[in-house]
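So, read this over?
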Amino acid sequence: MPQTFADPAAASIPLHVISEEQLENWLSEQPERNRSWLKAQGFTGALGQAVTLPDDEGGIALAAIGFGTEKARKRGRFHLAAAAPKLPEGVYKIASGLEQTVAENECLGWLLAGYRFDRYSKQSPLQAELVAPDSVDVKKIEARAAGETLTRDLINTPASDMGPPDLELAARDLAKQHNARITVTTGEDLLTQNFPMIHTVGRAADRAPRLIDMRWGSNGPKLTLVGKGVCFDTGGLNLKPGASMGLMKKDMGGAAAVLGLAHMIMATGLGVQLRVLIPAVENSVSGNAFRPGDILTSRKGLTVEINNTDAEGRLVLADALALADEESPDQIISMATLTGAARVAVGPDLAPYFSDDAGFVSALETAAVAQDDPVWRLPFHDPYEPMIEPGIADLDNAPKGGFAGCITAALFLRRFVTQSPYAHFDIYGWQPADAPARQKGGVGQATRALHAALTPLLNL
């Protein structure tokens, strides 16, 4: 269950957020017994410290959390989340020290620190609850926390329980929650409905491939989100080695991200006509798996030479993007765990994205900083276009040479969007080690930034 704020009417413990620079002044305002207690506990205001002070009845009179120095805070994010697990059970209300400019992100971090993936084993819950400060938009922050929780749960669930039918069920549950409309094209119907590459990539699996199409809203700008839903990627006949296959349950991270973002949009009632497209497949090995050297014809009519069956994500996205573009929406955004090259370039914490739209870039970059949701722009570099043109077909799904892999993948996808503004995110979708508010495992990237950017971008 997603974490929510505590009832503001509940009895609460005053919580003071104290930076190292503020410590001396704050201590000067405290009674001697508090100063002595804090000194005995070694409280210096360093990031992540958490101390409670007793009252005369043996309860908790107040709590103090260290907020470090400005330099230390710049090295990370969600600093209250680092301290929240160290507090004893109780309801806490911030009494001083947290500036309004950072309150929403810090409070969101507290909620995210309570995330537990407990489907298969019992997890100890976060004991400390937080009352939202008056300055915080509770509905918005809880919607973002719930969207992130959905994304994490979907990514963390193994492919044994998160195949294409299960991803469809998750989308249907979300549609039901928000009174959205949903249709699904499955199996051989993909061929009759002209989604040949989605069918080709997923036909070797026991669980049939499908295209999930969800719509919500009837007024406002048209926004279409497209998420890669490869529920497990063996690499196909270009079989991955074991070390590379171990995390492939997360190869539907793009689908998980757009579903989480869709929840944020619908729960906060943004005035858009939202469409979510998810090609959901497994890239498996069997006698009818597609082969290196095959040439496929896409929904758009472009032919694609298959030079590596492990570059399958761009194939299923291509058919979905072509469908999205046929409506000429005001903005198309794709999200996918697409290339290892993106991870080599920027690591797991940054979300690389591609856009040639100055307005989109400005809105996103501003929102990413404000939301502590970092992104990094990479180029649709036109001089690399010949790298994805093999000669025998219109496009090559896996250019040789090893250069600029994430850029050539983005250029490939851009060929299928000709009528609408387009941005592509090549996310990792995985937190490799525990960090404040981001436990090891599946994680959303760029979705909070996008949620915040949509209002200025689409003039909502």
